[in-house]
Task: structure prediction
Amino acid sequence: MTQPPSDVVRKFLARGHRVLFGAESFCWPDIGVAVDYPAVGLGEKPYLNSGGFIGHVSELREIVAHAALQDNDDDQRYYTKIFLNEHLRTKWRIGLDTRSEIFQNLNGAVEDVELKFYGDDTVLHNHITGTLPAVVHGNGEAKLFLHHLGNYLAKWWSEHDGCRACRENAKVVDPSDEASYPDIVVGYFVEHPTPFLEDGLDLLLNLTYPKKKMTLLVHNAVEYHRGHIADFIARHSALYKEVKAIGPEDDANEAEAREAAVQECLAMADCAYYLSLDATARLTVNTSIELLIQQNRPFLAPMLLRPNTMWSNFWGSLNKEGFYARSEDYMDIIHGRRIGVWNVPHVTETYLIQRHLLPNISYSRHGALDPDMALTRHLREQGFFIYVSNLIILGHLITPDYYNTSFAEPDMYEIFTNPEEWKQAYIHPDYFQYLKEGVEVPQPCPDVYWFPIATAAKMPTRLCSSRTAMTSS
Result:
């Protein structure tokens, strides 16, 4: 409902009917009665939809008591039969909202409507009839589009105030009281050869959420990374409440590993959250977990992008086959022109789930799909909302597509595919500072300059290793 009840009543009374039903372009459930409907004007919707109606109580009581109904009877067929009976239609003065002045049924009408932004308000405009509907109904196959509209309508988001609803029901996380932090299970998934995995593990280690409140389950499906994971666990497992590992030798597929992490949380009485974190996602804000918890959504992903691309970890819409489609606001969201928490059909790579939702999680119910696609489809089918937030950018994605582990030092070759990671790993942090105009380069003696180029920790050894391998080959 996008307008105050008083506006709805005013519109209804202006029509002069005692009962008014919404209208749509499909004659359902009995297409054969389409010829019995009264004619309507150009661009108007001719057929009754019972998803929304308004009327005087006296007439509505008589209508619902007109004939016996069973629980499994179709309500739209019932009201249609009454409407098409000219005597009853006249007796109860029943009309259809053919111009969508009050009721906008979206199925078959998605192209008829558009969002209009007016300062501190956002409205739905039907550009076929020129009306501003007050009640929006996502009937039939239009439910996902209704979720999209719900990101803006009913005072949720405006150009003037941004996301009003984002400030509602925020959860307080007190950094001075670590004892009050709820337990969390973090599933860390290395499903493919991953550039700069050691740096990704360092970012995981740098998260400020109390590690004694954190159970870590690592699934590594890549033989090449066996040593990286083993070294991380050997050096840091004592910091965590518990660390468990599923390796290549365990022969667990991705869906099984992800469901094992969910079950790990459910098996712990005090586990309140589950964080799924893929190795390709890099949370560079150390307080990322706390910031996600504060936003207090049952299923929430931080928006993450591959730098300098339009590739993100969420889909704004789906096509008819259930795969990616670009929503009209996708570019505005990823470029930060619209900031908020968005109801979307699909997210991947990183997301936080509240415990109460975990029994409804499945990565294998739709076995032909990738596990994350199976997960979000299963959630959509159950009517659960999936949110992505760009209120604060918590990190980014890396690109694993061309990572070649046959090289001696494969990370060295990522300068063009993952330039940000490459610079962090191999370029001295002061390098770019000395490129600025007017900055003097230190001279320990005449004609000798101290110019920082490479990191001391990684560049020399890996460069030598790479050159040695090339020479020996």
About this structure: Residues 459-472 form the longest helix (14 residues). The first strand starts at residue 19 and ends at 24.
